[in-house]
Design brief:
The protein has 494 residues and is an all-beta fold. Helices cover 1% and strands 22% of the residues. The protein has one helix at residues 459-464, and strands at 14-17, 21-23, 29-31, 40-42, 69-71, 75-78, 81-84, 133-135, 146-148, 158-160, 166-168, 215-218, 222-225, 228-231, 233-235, 258-260, 274-276, 285-287, 304-309, 318-324, 327-332, 354-358, 363-368, 374-376, 385-387, 456-457, 472-475, 480-484, 489-491. The strands form nine sheets. The chain has a four-stranded mixed β-sheet, with no helix packed on it. The protein is rod-shaped and about 210 Å long.
Length: 494
């Protein structure tokens, strides 16, 4: 066959074979088909060895065509799914990407100044050159490996660097909680109440307490400085384990304005004590004030009691001080005494008295001096019994052997007065009854004119008298002394 090196034209088409090659009258070329519908219509497999350039490549999903496209052995397009060994190039306009399984994302131009940031893991040509990633931002920030929204130092956003440091301009919320270590050196600035939970649990170092913190403030009510907690009010349970002398551990040192407990407060350590107004109590309970120090035991509706003794509760080996029904009562449930002691110590000065005082006018009703003088209505008694006022005895009064009775005024008795020794009168004795003497009645010191005076009566009074044998009277009407012999009155003279 001859070779033609010049161009040639087909005016009305050419057909080499019905099934192999056809050029129709409008210039469509069909390979493997006699009815080409496009400028080049190939029915079957086509192979191109070299560069193929096309503006648009469309693979139809018509049943008469094979919908798979293969590019060598590396890329396959089947039913809209692209399978390839690797992807290269700019994916700026890609969207609707659901998922990837690859060695890394290669979508990034922010580092060279272009105002867009994509997702990248590493440069394929240099795996050590890691790219930065931005989400929700068009401004690249080479200070972070990942930035969401923007730089949190200047605007709203979240940043992350490959060392693991995370920074957020807003609140970080985790419904599943937080697991990890918060170092004291990482806590700086102010943590607002709105960002804290209702309950905070801290595992404080048992040796150093919270001394690693200079100061912790919870609002304006609680401050922790060098292991010392200062608070306006404690409500609920406050528990400390005695292991050393720091904070709530060891010997707890609590200084607060008010502690409120709805249950009990227990101090179980050996040598435990409570100091109120003092940091160094020397007894089990010690209250110290520069002014008045007050301890109150109050019952709103029943007995207010203080128990003392050697048995739990108020048992037989106990005493009790109580206030009930307007009465102050003192009980000793055991068989011992109730002793009231003054001037037991070594203090110098005049010893005072035991006193009973009426609070409305502060008058001293009873007073017992340290040397045994007892005053009734007398604040400074000078005798063993000193009564200021009238004394009434409803039974016998017994004065001891060889005791003298001295009265500086009238002695009036409605009963018998028995004197077993001598009776000395320096004044007048009026007796509304019978005077019995078992010895001689003697008038001494005659120079002073002592006298024995019998009753002076009229006839009517004499006749009305309840007479006894030996009675003597002076009848002023008749002017005579008369004596009663048991039957009649006899004149001593006529």
């Amino acid at each position: 066959m001859a070779n033609y090196k010049k161009a040639f034209n087909f005016k009305h088409g050419v057909q080499v074979d019905v099934d192999n090659f056809v050029v129709n009258s409008i210039g469509n070329v069909g390979v493997g088909t006699s009815r080409p519908g496009q400028l080049l219509d190939v029915y079957g497999t086509a192979r191109v060895n070299g560069l193929t350039t096309t503006t648009t490549l469309t693979v139809t999903d018509d049943a008469q065509f094979n919908s798979d496209v293969k590019i060598g052995t590396a890329v396959t397009i089947s039913n809209g799914i692209v399978t390839a060994t690797e992807y290269y190039g700019n994916g700026f306009y890609l969207d609707g990407i659901i998922g990837f399984t690859t060695d890394g994302f290669v979508v990034h131009t922010a580092s060279n100044g272009v105002a867009r940031s994509g997702i990248a893991a590493y440069d394929k040509s240099n795996s050590d050159a890691l790219f930065k990633v931005g989400i929700g931002t068009t401004v690249a920030n080479n200070s972070y490996d990942l930035v969401v929204g923007g730089d949190p130092n200047s605007t709203s956003g979240i940043s992350l660097v490959k060392e693991g440091n995370l920074k957020s301009s807003g609140t970080i919320t985790a419904d599943g909680g937080f697991i990890g270590t918060v170092r004291s050196s990482d806590l700086t600035g102010l943590i607002e109440d709105a960002r804290l939970p209702d309950t905070i649990t801290s595992n404080i170092n048992q040796t150093t307490g919270v001394s690693t913190f200079s100061t912790i403030k919870v609002g304006t009510a609680i401050t922790i400085t060098s292991g010392v907690v200062t608070a306006t009010t404690f409500v609920g349970s406050l528990t400390g384990t005695a292991t050393n002398s720091s904070g709530l551990t060891g010997t707890p040192n609590i200084s607060v304005g008010l502690i409120t407990s709805t249950s009990s407060l227990h101090l179980t350590g050996t040598g435990s004590s409570i100091g109120i107004g003092t940091n160094s109590p020397t007894t089990d309970l010690q209250i110290r004030r520069s002014g008045n120090a007050v301890l109150e035991v109050v019952s709103d509706t029943n007995k207010a009691k203080i128990g003392l003794g050697n048995s739990l509760g108020i048992g037989n080996s106990s005493a009790e001080i109580r206030f009930h029904n307007k009465n102050l009562e003192l009980y000793n449930y055991d068989t011992g005494n109730i002793d009231t002691i003054i001037h037991k110590g070594t203090g110098a000065g005049t010893t005072g008295n035991f006193r009973w005082i009426y609070g409305q006018d502060n008058s001293v009703l009873l007073s017992l001096t340290y040397d045994g003088n007892f005053g009734i209505n007398e604040s400074s008694p000078t005798h063993k019994l000193h009564v200021s006022g009238i004394a009434t005895f409803t039974d016998d009064v017994d004065f001891g052997t060889s005791s003298d009775v001295t009265t500086h005024g009238a002695l009036t008795t409605k009963g018998s007065v028995t004197v077993e020794d001598s009776l000395t009168l320096s004044g007048t004795m009026s007796v509304d009854g019978v005077v019995s003497a078992s010895s001689t009645i003697k008038f001494s010191n005659v120079a002073n004119g002592p006298q024995f005076i019998v009753p002076v009566v009229t006839n009517t009074q004499q006749n009305a008298m309840s007479t006894s044998t030996g009675s003597i009277v002076f009848n002023s009407q008749d002017g005579v002394f008369r004596g009663y012999d048991g039957t009649i009155w006899n004149d001593f003279h006529s």
